[in-house]
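Exam prep: given the inputs below (a chain plus FE2/S2 (inorganic) cluster), describe the expected output before reading on.
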Amino acid sequence: MQIKLELNGKKVTAEIEADMLLLDFVRTQGCYSVKRGCETANCGLCTVFLDDKPVLSCSTLAARADGRKVTTLEGLQEEAAEFGAFIADQGAEQCGFCNPGFIMNALALFRENPYPDEEEIKEYLAGNLCRCSGYEGQLRGILAFLEYKKSKEQKGE
Ligand code: FES
Ligand code: FES
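Solution:
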């Protein structure tokens, strides 16, 4: 079957098998930030935005993206770099495997709720698995980023 969609701002037309997963499709298009960590909808590593809402691409058929907009970390470089620097600063990243999925979910949270409190952050990111760290560094990184964002807004930047 044929699908037409917008992937990271570019129009794409492709022939796919009806049972192809969105995860495999975006990787065939060069979006290697999207990773397979479990395939049981438990790790969050395969998160992409479908029409700006986060979905697990390991449990979404590529056919569902037909006529829609798909965004991966490759399409959010500026936003991701600014936030990612705060995570790196906290030494939160170890092997880095979970990082793209974690950043996608954190950016989705900031879009839904620009200034979440600690509980809201923990709740939202609960589905994001990291085998290396105890999440404390990631949490500190998020809180430091939110402080920075607040002060930037107060200064009207
Ligand atoms: S690979 Fe999709 S949730 Fe783990
Ligand atoms: S840093 Fe290794 S899985 Fe998270």
